[in-house]
Amino acid sequence: MSKAPLGAVTDPKAESGAPKPWPSHLPAVAVILLPLFKKPIGWIAAMGFERYTIGISRADLMRDCLRDLHLWPGCETVEGLAVLVDARGKFTVHIVDYGLAEKRVADRALRCIQRERLRRFHLKAE
Q1: Contact 43/51 with Cβ under 8 angstroms?
Q2: Phi, psi of 68 (to 5 degrees)
Q3: Which of 1, 51, 95, 121 is 20 to 30 A (C-alpha) from 88?
Q4: Under a CB-based contact definition with an 8 Å cutoff, are residues 10 and 4 in contact?
């Protein structure tokens, strides 16, 4: 096995049998991260989440969240939601009227629904 110069990182997937050293003037982290910045615009981020969000009105967001919340077992009787907004368009959804639903179950379901909505939407200024 040949030895690479001191400070160079070798590529284990080199085409030839002997490992090839990376350029010694670049740290190993830079060599790994460089290909990530050459993606075209509109690509999907590392975890598979969309990078750009779609604007949605507060009324549409409340209607969609309540409709999805009613699909969860034990949350069919939740009656009221509230949406709080910050300056950047991010939002939080809270249950105002639980009806006959258990608080713990309804809050857990709403957290899952809110996480999905935050990945896809931002709140439009009204």
Answers
A1: yes
A2: -70, -35
A3: 95
A4: yes
